[in-house]
Every structure is written in structure tokens, then in C-alpha cells.
Amino acid sequence: MGPDPTRRHVLATGAAVAGTAALLGSLSSTAYAADRTTSGATDRTKPTIVLVHGGFADGSGWNDVIKRLQRAGYPTIAPANPLRGLTTDVPYTASVLRSIEGPIVLVGHSYGGAVITNAAAGIPNVKALVYIAAFVPDEGEQLGVLINKYPGSIIQAATRAVPYANPDGTTGTDLYLQADKFRAAFAADVPIATTRLMQATQRPFSASAFADVTTAAAWRTIPSWGLVADEDKAIPPALERFFYRRAGAREVIEVPGASHVPMISHPGITTRLIEKAAEATG
User: Fold this and answer.
1) Residue range 223-279, pLDDT digits in tens
2) pLDDT of residue 22
3) What pLDDT was estimated at residue 44?
4) Structure pTM?
5) Cα 225 from Cα 247, distance rounded (Å)
6) Domain map of the chain by residue range?
7) How many Å apart are CA 215 and CA 163, to the nearest integer?
């Protein structure tokens, strides 16, 4: 006598599950292979590139740079910078760096430059610092003072302050870029449609970032590279040049016509500078 109905149902179900698993496994293998083909395999001999964004932004600002670095085989991450001020952002970024094995090339844009300057101190596998239109403060300095060292910034006049409640009951202040001033102050050489999206999705950062005091200057012991955005209206180009000169940057490139976001408007040039720093660590 053949298997009873219950047993036949179990056998049929088992066969269907096995067939489905095999099909999904095949599809997964195919998708994985395709992904490796299109994105490029990671070269484990290359340093990890860590990209730290600044205020009014998030990690997506690095997207075109990430694509290029990944195609070249670099393991790359762009962690979310909390944007709560140096006292929060520095230890958070340092914790990300400590989770990475092997050499690191640490890249900071704008306020992110101040974060990496502090966060890289005491982390031996950070082998290079790359500053993209960035702050590069020294110990004891405040960004709110440095921004006025040279004329040309319109970023403070373009911001809108919004109070928020801290968990301890105190009140903090978030800074947003005003919609009608976003493009001129932040991304004048980026298509209007793109800047509209950037403005709508901007992440505010705490006004305390301008008052927080830098406690470490990693550029004193770690070699650095710098990019000057010649038409930067957020951080004056003269201030960027001062920073990189003081840090003894191994190479400084200037991008004519570039706004404050050269990693978006000139991703190829930005990527090449990062690659030069990475090659130097080898």
C-alpha cells in the first residue's frame, strides 16, 4: 500500500521546499557574482577609506566618490556623523575607526575635518588624513573663531536656528541652511535639481560645534593631504590654504570654480587625491 495522504503531502512539500531553496541559492549565487563583477572586488591589501561628512549633509554626499573607490578595489565606508558637536561626534567616530582592522585613510569634509582631526589621535592604524574643503583646527581652537579668520564665508548668515530639547532638560540649538540660500552658500556649482534635494534632506548640526574646543591635532603626527575649493562660500579658500599649510600637507590641490561640495561636483578629482594618500600609505 502506498504512502498515506498525510505522508504524500509531507513528501511533496519537502520536494517543493528543496526545489525552491535550490532555485533561490542559484539566483543568490548569480546575483552575488553579478555584484562582484559590476562593483569590483575588494583588494584586501589596500587600506580602508573612511569618509566623514560635515554639517547639513549625510554620507550620500560621498556616493560618486565611493563608486570610484570601490571600482578601484578599496574597502570604503561613510559612517553617519552624529552632528551633535565635537564632544559627541569625536568619540563616536573614533569608535568606528577602532572597529576597523588594517590601515585606514581617513577623509573629512567641512566640519568633518575637525572631527577627524580629533578622532584620529591615538589610533595607530590611521595612516593618512585627507581634508576636502575642510576645517583643520589645532588644539585649543574653536571653529566659530576660525571661520572669521579670513573674509568670504556666507554660511552663518544663511543658517536658521531651531531650538531642541536635550534629554537632561536643557535646550540646544540646531542649525539649518535656509532654502533660498542653500545653493549659494553650499553648492553653487551643483545642478539646481540636486541642490533642492540636498536642501530638503539636509541634516542639521548643533550650534555647539562652533564653540567646542579642539583637544587633539592628529595632523601633527599623521601625514595629510588637502583640497581647496576655489569658490567656497562656506569655508573661505584662504582659510583652507592656511589650514593645509600649517598642517604641512604633503599635497594640496585647488579646484577652480568648485563650491563647498567638490566631492559632489568634482568626484573624480576628489577621488584621485584620496587615492594618492592611500598609495602613499603602502
Assistant:
1) 999 999 999 999 999 999 999 999 999 999 999 999 999 999 999 999 999 999 999
2) 39
3) 77
4) 0.85
5) 9
6) 48-281
7) 27
d(CA 70, CA 77): 10
User: How would DSSP label each residue in 84-134?
Assistant: S-HHHHHHHHHHHHHT--S-EEEEEETHHHHHHHHHTTT-TTEEEEEEES-
Can you tell me the distance from the alpha carbon of 150 to that of 237, in angstroms, rounded to the nearest whole number?
9
Query: Are the beta carbons of 243 and 135 closer than 8 angstroms?
Result: yes
Give the three-class secondary structure for 178.
coil
- What is the chain's percent helix, strand, coil content, to nearest 5? 45, 15, 40
Residues of the chain with pLDDT under 70: 1-42
Q: Which of 241, 233, 242, 256 is nearest to 152 (CA)?
A: 233
Pairwise CA distance, residues 258 & 158, whole Å: 19
**What SS3 state is found at 230?**
coil
Q: For cell 573614533, name the residue.
A: 94
The pairing of strands 224-229 and 251-255 is: parallel
3-state DSSP call for residue 24? helix
Residue 156 phi/psi, 5-degree rounding, is: -65, -35
Domain 48-281 annotated CATH 3.10.20.90: no
Predicted pLDDT at 41: 67
Quote the CA–CA distance of 27 and 114 in Å, as a whole number.
Answer: 45
* Type of residue numbered 205: F
Asked if 120 and 218 count as a contact pair (C-beta separation under 8 A), the reply is: yes
